Amino acid sequence: MHATFTEEQREVEQAVRDIAGGENGAARAALDAPWSPPAMDAELFGGFGVLGVPESIGGVGSDLVDLLVAVEVLGETLAPSRFPWHAAAVQLLSGGPVVDDAILGGEVVLAPAVDARPGWTGTGIARSLVPYAAHADAFAVVDGDRVWSASAVAVRERESFDPSVPLADVEFAEAGADPRPLARGLERATLVVAAQLCGVAQGAIDLAAGQARTRQQFGKAIGSFQGVAFQLAEAVTARKAAWDLTIYAAWAVENDRDDATSHVHAAKAAAGKAAVFAAERCIQVHGGMGITMAADPHLYLRRAFVLDAMLGRGSVHRREVGRLRVAARA
Amino acid sequence: MHATFTEEQREVEQAVRDIAGGENGAARAALDAPWSPPAMDAELFGGFGVLGVPESIGGVGSDLVDLLVAVEVLGETLAPSRFPWHAAAVQLLSGGPVVDDAILGGEVVLAPAVDARPGWTGTGIARSLVPYAAHADAFAVVDGDRVWSASAVAVRERESFDPSVPLADVEFAEAGADPRPLARGLERATLVVAAQLCGVAQGAIDLAAGQARTRQQFGKAIGSFQGVAFQLAEAVTARKAAWDLTIYAAWAVENDRDDATSHVHAAKAAAGKAAVFAAERCIQVHGGMGITMAADPHLYLRRAFVLDAMLGRGSVHRREVGRLRVAARA
Amino acid sequence: MDFDDSPDDKAFRREVGAWLDTALADVPDQEELAHSEREHWSRVWQERLCEGSWAGLSWPVEHGGRGMDALAQAIFNEEAAVRGAPYPLNGVGMMLAGPTIIAHGDDAQKARYLPGILQGSTYWCQGFSEPGSGSDLASLRTAAVKVDGGWVINGSKIWTSNAHNASMCLLLARTDATADKHAGISYFLAPMDRFTVRPLVMINGDTEFNEMFLDDVFVPDEDVLGGVGNGWKVALTTLAFERGSMALNLWVWARQAVDRLIDIAVERGMADDEAFLDAVGALDCDAEAVRIGSMRMVAESRSGGVPGPETSALKSLWAGVVQNANRLAVQIDDGGGVLLDGDGAGPRMRRYLRARAHTIEGGSEEVQKSILAERVLGLPRSR
Amino acid sequence: MDFDDSPDDKAFRREVGAWLDTALADVPDQEELAHSEREHWSRVWQERLCEGSWAGLSWPVEHGGRGMDALAQAIFNEEAAVRGAPYPLNGVGMMLAGPTIIAHGDDAQKARYLPGILQGSTYWCQGFSEPGSGSDLASLRTAAVKVDGGWVINGSKIWTSNAHNASMCLLLARTDATADKHAGISYFLAPMDRFTVRPLVMINGDTEFNEMFLDDVFVPDEDVLGGVGNGWKVALTTLAFERGSMALNLWVWARQAVDRLIDIAVERGMADDEAFLDAVGALDCDAEAVRIGSMRMVAESRSGGVPGPETSALKSLWAGVVQNANRLAVQIDDGGGVLLDGDGAGPRMRRYLRARAHTIEGGSEEVQKSILAERVLGLPRSR
Q1: Most buried in the list A252, C202, D172, D335, measured by CB within 10 Å?
Q2: Taking the model in full, what pTM does it have?
Q3: Nearest-Cα residue of chain C relative to residue D382
Q4: ipTM score of the complex?
């Protein structure tokens, strides 16, 4: 057992942090002006496009955990980047065969189209909660146990709670060209979202801890009151649980373990819970300022809610964990 | 609106406290030797038998809240008394006609037989969680929308988690003699249990607060740490909610309000939750001593669990509240 | 124990209801409006309250009020809240400024300020909190310097509702920097002509609160309320009125939050789900407990008692149920509630976001728990 | 990132499993036994561990151990826990006394005490906590007075597991009342002939812990471990071993608690209930997080790292999931679980009651949260 991060993974983490760090303001910028591709996108597509891509579809032997380490940082810094979504879309296609080099190199940018659009009665297939759709060159469309890449028939932009992750409803032709088996693609993509959520939780905790260390009340830093400190301790615990579940699930999926499916559900459920909880605590610890647009805590809350909703709501994943475990013992 | 306790109710509370206070040790005594009727029983039957008994069955105009005020104190002091159960049984019979004077005077002691005995396949009717059955002269047996008083065909004593409230499975002949309509009897009896639970919560909170005020750690009373203090503040909030719901439900039942049924469920659910929560916090605040038999917190936990289980589990009542509210709006 | 209206109260409730039905006939559903439109209706509503002589409902008759009691006020607020009436734009004037001036003001102050509130000509705001003070209100730093005939005041205030509509401010400032932190505070009735008001945008987009910057504000000696150095005591009176007036209809918001949650679940076909019933059962218990606790609090005041520290339990319970109901309503919505242009999704998210403030405003959750620990349970101070 | 055994580890796990299957063949299910019978099997099990040379599995070869690493110990403990093996009666000797003496003892101390642990002839207990000290361990008052050739010690200790079976005690006592509270403490290897041991009955009826009263206990100078006045530092080593050894198989109890909860729900026909699935899903997430976190912790130690304060998160998570799973298992039982003679109800309630201690023992929940706040988040001390 070597359940520790490799030196290479630590280097990936630092490299992504160097690119995405300081871009936090960009998540805020999208509150006032429509999202546009940030400078970091080119660097990320150029440098990290093969992270977590199985060799069977053209990768070079990087495993899924490498990718999750990278996207965790993007969550932590609230990077308003298409990179994690493109990467999730590539993961959707991981059931084979080989994926175009232009996609792996990020010249063709994909977005994942997974969540069903409720109430859809048109012809074709409609997906909702599709991120950065207007800036995607194509989509990885999931339908049942198949997935294919396709252009949209129609894109309807929606008002996203997190404007730095624009969302759209997208329609596709009924039958996809070149469908491939989904295999573990959806599970792998779901973990890309879970890892971002773990990052959002971490970023919110860090911001809150900074406030707790510096804000004075009653002559002391507020972090010296257990009423404040213990909320954040609980957030740390929830975030650690989520991250451990996420990297384990990635290992389980890579190694095709029996319990992989249940762990993917657990990771998405726990990560969504941890991120929303941490963001709410971050607001609370900031007191009055925490409920203003001027302060940053709400940026974490927005990202947390949007990610929790995507690729299956956290609450649905949680119940699925219960269902699978009961089925295993009944 | 006069949603305040009357002077008479405050006097009842004080009188019961004078009788039951200091008898706390009696709940502990039952851990070592079989329960036997405490001295207070005679005083309670003699002095308070008509509390909450409707005039229609022989009462003298005391309302249900009077009774709840009295049994709340019995919960608070962990009185190992048959009185609240006899009173609950009388309430079961409140749909009329007039009840024997010997019952109202406590010369004939009743016990409520309400909860179904799971897995029963015999003839007749079987009830479980019947309190003080071996020391009851008769039982108020509930079956569907009917209730009657009857002797037992068989009593099987069970091992109660709270030995100061002995429990038994009891069997009765199929058809009760002299069945009467249940009307609001079950709701009224359920509130007698809820009020005891509110008392248990209060007693556990008081015990815990005493510990928090006096136990020193790190050079200070532990109650000066918010990590300790806030647990008890939450217990206070839960207990207040439960008590407010309980007395309101009693008023609603007495006045035959549309929302009475929902409020009875709410009271039982909230009171069970408050009592178990307060008892668990009481253990926690006592630290290591809290998990020993020598200290008192577990006595509250025992009573809380037993009462929460009786006349319908708290969790079942809670879900019933949800069901009724949804039905009212659907 | 009687939770029902007396015959007189019933009659009054009918009277109020009839008036409200008429007065609200042309008022749109506030939940669907933008913030500026809501503010417009708040002003209209305040004017109608003044015209209808409801503004001084529980003020003594000698000061122009109707001389009714807390229950009457509770009935009025409750009936208005149930009907979704706008928040009156001079709530601070009617509920805080008026009663505080009546309690602590001299005859001249009463004559000078009370009529304007009843007539709707003077709007008030509350200048207590400061950027540095937060939960530790008495650490305020806004400084009043004695000059001939009065005081010159400089500093800044924050979390002021309605500052941009008000012309007068209930202002706390430090008049003695050398005194103990409570003793050095005085309470001013301050004109706002030298206040700069800057709106704070809340996370739901509303601009309900403001920052205020005071630049050589002059207040004459005769507008110190309750005497120099007595400001903390007077402020406690205002805060008690604030708690009292909030508690009168807080429960309606809790009730509405749970009801709206149920409505969205029914609409989405999720209301039969046992996990939902379980969750909504727990929320409903709490919402009803807030309603009943509020009634008991009003009843206590009416029978001469003073609402005790247990009201902190109500506040805490209320904040929790509104936050949790509103979060669940968002999360069970289509698309997890994050598509704000969805049917009703925008207002649902706005309510969820607004509710995050409930554990901060009006005494934070941490302050409420401290009050319960110290004043109900007698635990030592933890701050 | 690899959570799987290496081929060597796999082989070792098979070896361990084979030995355990044989050694446990005649051992009954401990859950169903009375406390005295469990103690009997604990002793038998300890003897079998010693005979099988498993007692010093992770001790250095030079001290009679097998010289294997933390993962090997983890594999052994895990396989034993999964099979429901008894708790070995000299766990304190194997896991705390031995490693601490190896770390801080001189050659004579090692020669004197290590063989007895490996052979199973000397049983140890841990005398750290005192009635007055609790979470504030360093405030201990048991006093050692210098006499010719050694120390005479008086005082009392509490929460001592297994004291009535032990002949030796890892004893902290104050050797300098005038020094700083940490600097005044020394660590003794104390014979127990002048200890009076009184069992504490736990709320589940077990007598797992004891009080100990020391009456002129004499300890010779050569049995001070790590030097006079260095007791706190040595104690921290013991506490680190305690945390490490607990963490190795705590997760098995969490896993078993959730699995047993599911079993009772299935048995009662309640496992299809959506509210149950929701609750058990959340519990399962936490139980798996404890398992994975434990693996990562062992992996960290193995690769030379020191488990950090994040282990407090594991402890907290573990306590919560075991408490909540055990409570729910009681509450969904027939009769709400309060009829203890019901099928399996007694053991279920005993487990629930035992779990209440999990947020108190081994560093209380409040201590764990303080550690996370101070050492992970860098917040100021709150105690």
Answers
A1: D172
A2: 0.96
A3: C382
A4: 0.96
